[in-house]
Amino acid sequence: MSHLDDIPSTPGKFKMEKSPYIHNRLRWQSSIAKLTFWSFIFLGLILVFFFRSPSSNPLPQDPSRRSLRTDNWGGSAWEKRVRSSARVRSRNGISVLVTGAAGFVGTHVSVALKRRGDGVLGLDNFNDYYDPSLKRARRALLERSGVFIVEGDINDSALLKKLFEVVAFTHVMHLAAQAGVRYAMENPSSYVHSNIAGLVSLLEVCKSANPQPAIVWASSSSVYGLNTKVPFSERDRTDQPASLYAATKKAGEEIAHTYNHIYGLSLTGLRFFTVYGPWGRPDMAYFFFTRDILKGKSIPIFEAANHGTVARDFTYIDDIVKGCLAALDTAEKSTGSGGKKKGPAQLRVYNLGNTSPVPVTQLVDILERLLKRKAKRNIMKLPQNGDVQFTHANISLAQRELSYKPTTDLQTGLKKFVRWYLGYYSGGKKAAG
Ligand SMILES: NC(=O)c1ccc[n+]([C@@H]2O[C@H](COP(=O)([O-])OP(=O)(O)OC[C@H]3O[C@@H](n4cnc5c(N)ncnc54)[C@H](O)[C@@H]3O)[C@@H](O)[C@H]2O)c1
Ligand SMILES: *[C@@H]1O[C@H](CO)[C@@H](O)[C@H](O)[C@H]1NC(C)=O
Ligand SMILES: *[C@@H]1O[C@H](CO)[C@@H](O)[C@H](O)[C@H]1NC(C)=O
């Protein structure tokens, strides 16, 4: 790794340079000894340089790990930035570690928390699943509101430990994940890396932290898989996922149960239903439909067997943000300490949707009106490789316990998205994706 000086488990490495100097200083009278001493320092410096240089990174060239090499953290200036970003500025404010902060939902949640005076520190590996320049633009936005995003991986335990040493986070908003349903056939290991290994690494550090933070994290409506009973309610079965993505989110819910049960971590899972809006994700249909309609390119519109409608419960980002903040605010404290459970802790799961599924054809109608262009529709059979025919959330539980109440319909939300899209991609910027 590129930051040996920050790994708490190997502090001895750097003491070597100092201690012989301090203990033997007075005895080194001859110039030969001085020469030896300075050669030692020089050799030490070369070694330090060698270990810090990226070319010496021992990791294999596995694309799912590429992101682990981008980090470059540590040092007192860095710690100062971390502390300042995480500093609580309002009475009763909380300090939140937001993973996936350069992502779509992470950016919006971070801004909202910062705005009300909470301490916020972001963590993101800026991977290139979709155009990283959009993630960097979101980071610039966050920097302007005073949120620092540490560039690093959630599976980097040393980094996570360091962050908890520097800041006693009261909450973690865990949004970092490998998203996307069909990409799982191309790069399955990236799902295991972020959604399984990364989640476990994060929970391991959280359970050992003193105090333990309360954790709110993003699951997905995809856990309902092939269910046909609608609307989807939290108590419905979630054991027939239709994609590896869904399977890793379901696994995440089970892993959350385990850490709650064994270590007393307070855990809240949020099952998001197709989130959309400004600064959104270029791999999602509403986003690339917009891009392709503007380009005059045909767009694939999926149809289920017997011309069945494919529909989604589209949820506007501002509504999701309110749900996330309400989940943080109602989260009870974790009960463990010193890595041991002291009593039962809160374990929750909520649907965050909009309760009104819209056929994809209607999504395209709205986009055509907003963009003042006709779409070239290419009707295709829904492939059986991840996407489900429809999603529809029962949100009465979130309504009751989080006062969650979505207020933005698809027409209104898409209007805001299109306005952002046209502004963002005008002025020489190429459409992403
Ligand atoms: N947008 C939706 O419709 C939707 C629906 C259901 C669930 N979700 C979930 O909500 C969360 C946020 O989704 P989003 O739409 O903002 O996605 P996003 O891809 O825009 O954001 C995820 C961010 O996490 C980062 N990341 C990924 N792996 C990482 C790792 N190993 N270490 C550090 N950072 C890493 C990515 O760089 C990205 O910026 C995800 O967990 C996603 O699975 C989203
Ligand atoms: C995650 O990190 C652990 C060590 O902390 C490592 O053993 C494991 O290989 C990593 N997993 C992935 C998938 O990168
Ligand atoms: C919605 O979920 C609640 C539980 O939160 C349940 O009582 C109710 O019956 C569900 N409604 C429908 C229509 O499934």
TrEMBL record:
The UniProt record lists the keyword Transmembrane: yes
GO molecular function: UDP-glucuronate 4-epimerase activity
Bilayer topology annotation: Multi-pass membrane protein
Pfam families: Epimerase
Transmembrane annotation, as ranges: 32-51
Keyword Membrane among UniProt keywords: yes
Main location: Golgi
Designated name of the protein: UDP-glucuronate 4-epimerase
Gene source species: Rubroshorea leprosula
